[in-house]
Amino acid sequence: MKATKKILGAALSGALLIGAMAGCAQTPADPTSSVSPSPTVSATPSESPAAQFGDFDLETPDVTMALLGFPGTTTVMTVDGAEVSAEEYLYWLGYATEYVGYYQFGDPAAIDWEMDTGSGTVTEYLINNARDLAAFNQVIRNQCAERNITLTDEEKAELDQQLADAVETSGGQDAFELALKEVNRTEDGLRSMYEASNFLYASLQNQLFPAKDAASLTAEELAQWAADNGKMQVKHILFKTVDDSGNALSDEEKEAAKQKAEDTLAQLQASDDMENLFDQLMNELSEDGRYSDGTLGAPDGYLFGEGEMVQEFEDAAKALGEHELSGIVETSYGYHILLRLPVDTEMAREAWASEQEANLSTQMNDQMTTWMDEAVVETNDTFASIDPKDYYERLSAYREQLEAANSTETDGAATAEPSASPAAEG
C-alpha cells in the first residue's frame, strides 16, 4: 500500500538503525540469523484478509481497540518497571512480521508460522523479536531518565521538523494519518520513537562516551597516530585487466594494459619532475574509479592501514619510502604504479574521526547489550493473548477496509459535480 510504504520509509529509518545497534541475538536487522526461507512456500491465501472478519470501526483513532478490543494504551509489558503499551509492542510486531514475511517468505501471506527456526517456531521468533525491540527503546528511555537526559530546545525543533517532513513525504496530513493507522501507530507513538532513536540514543552515547573534537588534533598528533596505526598514503595509476563487472579481459587486452603500464613507468623513471608528471599521467590515464564528469574519485590517493587493500598493493606500498615510485604491481584488478607520499594531515584527521566514531559506536553497542541482558522484562496476560498470526491477519483486513473506504471517498470527490456556479445561477 502506498501510504504504508511512505510511513515505513519515513518513520522506520531509525528503527532499522536500532535493530542493527541492539546487538541482540535476533533482530529485524538480521532475520537470517534464525529464520531460513522455504523455497517451496508461496502465497496462496484462500480468501482476502478482509473477508475473514467483520467490519472494523474505521473512525476510531485507536487501531488496537478496533482490532483487538482493548485500548492501545493498555500495558502489555514492563522494562525495569517502566510500562510499555500495546501500541508500542504491536507496532514492532507488525514491523517484524512484514520484515520476515517479505525477506524470508516472499510475502507475509506465505509465512509458515509453525516452521522450526532451530530455536522455536517463526511465531515465537516474532514474539521475542517484537518484545526485544520494544524493550530496547524503553531501555533507552529508562537510562536517559536516570541521567536526566532530555531533548534540548534545538532538538525539539528538529524533531518537529522531522515530523513535518514525514507529513509532507506522505502527501499531506490526511495521508499521513492514514499511513499511521495502517501500521497501528499514533502520532504520539511516532514522536516517541523518533525521540528515542534519533535523539536520546545519541545523547546517551555522548554522555557515556564523549567524543574528542578531531579539529583539536595537531599535525604532529595526527602524524603520530598514523605511524602508530601503520597508515600509509599512496597514489596509483591503474591499468585494468578486468571490466567494470569484474570479468577478466582477453589475453590481448591484458597484454595491452601491461604494455601501457610499462611505457608509463618508463616515462616516470626518466622524468626530472616525477611527482608532477605522476599526477598528470594519473589524471589522464588511470582506470581507477571516476565520477560521471571523468574526474578521478581519489585524486589525492588513499590513506589506508593493514588489511584495507589487496595484499599485493599493501606489500608494495610498505616496501616504498615516502616520495618513492614502485615498479609494476599486479593485482586482481590490473597493473598498478604506486607513488608513496607523506600522510596528508587533513586526510588523517578525517580517518581519525571516522575511526573514533566506529569505536564509540562499538562501545555504545556493547553497553546497550549489557543493559538489555540486565533488563527485567515482564509480560502480562494481555501480552500472552496476542497471537501474531491473528493480529497480522486482522491488521491486513483493517488495511483493506481502510483503503477501500479511502478510495471511495477519493473517487466521490473526483466525480462530484457542483450543482451550478454562482455565475450560472445569475
Automatic annotation (TrEMBL):
Residues 229-342 form the PpiC domain. Keywords: Isomerase, Rotamase, Signal. GO terms for molecular function: peptidyl-prolyl cis-trans isomerase activity. Residues 412-426 have a biased composition (Low complexity). It comes from Pseudoflavonifractor capillosus ATCC 29799. It comes from the Bacteria. The lineage of its organism: Bacteria, Bacillati, Bacillota, Clostridia, Eubacteriales. InterPro entries: PPIase_dom_sf, PPIase_PpiC, PrsA_foldase, Trigger_fact/SurA_dom_sf. Residues 28-51, 402-426 are annotated as: Disordered. This is PPIC-type PPIASE domain protein. Residues 1-25 form the signal peptide.
